[in-house]
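User: quick one, sequence for these tokens?
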């Protein structure tokens, strides 16, 4: 009887608790399925990275231009390493080692001297004055850095 009751109530518990995905959290914007996108090509989610460098490569459907260029519908990349997103209407701050501006219109970046541990990397495309595009253009991966070369 207890197993039957648990089996019947499980779907309701799962719906009440939500999917458990970071994308469903009010603090994490959801990606627009039909809009612009950014993709963290490397590292891939779940990767185990050996050493103390994280090589990040990005791809985006948004035209990426240098910071300061306010051409409509364009932007440049920002990376958050183990940092929470800042408010949508505020410029992305610079925090060395954890919030990176890629204002030179590049699509790759290397974090140096990274300690072993679990990491969350968020890529955000923002306009020429560093305010995130709306709707959000964002991607998130998690990975682990292990010691070694």
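Assistant:
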């Amino acid at each position: 009887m207890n197993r039957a009751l648990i089996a019947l109530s499980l779907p309701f518990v799962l719906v009440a608790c939500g999917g458990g995905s970071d994308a469903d959290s009010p603090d994490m914007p959801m990606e627009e399925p039909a809009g612009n996108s950014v993709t963290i090509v490397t590292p891939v989610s779940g990767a185990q990275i050996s050493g103390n460098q994280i090589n990040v490569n990005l791809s985006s459907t948004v035209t990426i231009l240098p910071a300061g260029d306010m051409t409509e519908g364009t932007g440049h990349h920002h990376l958050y390493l183990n940092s929470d997103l800042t408010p949508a209407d505020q410029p992305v701050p610079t925090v060395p080692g954890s919030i990176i501006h890629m204002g030179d219109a590049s699509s790759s970046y290397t974090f140096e001297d990274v300690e072993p541990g679990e990491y969350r990397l968020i890529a955000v495309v923002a306009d020429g004055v560093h305010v995130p595009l709306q709707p959000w253009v964002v991607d998130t991966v998690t990975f682990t850095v292990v010691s070694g070369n």
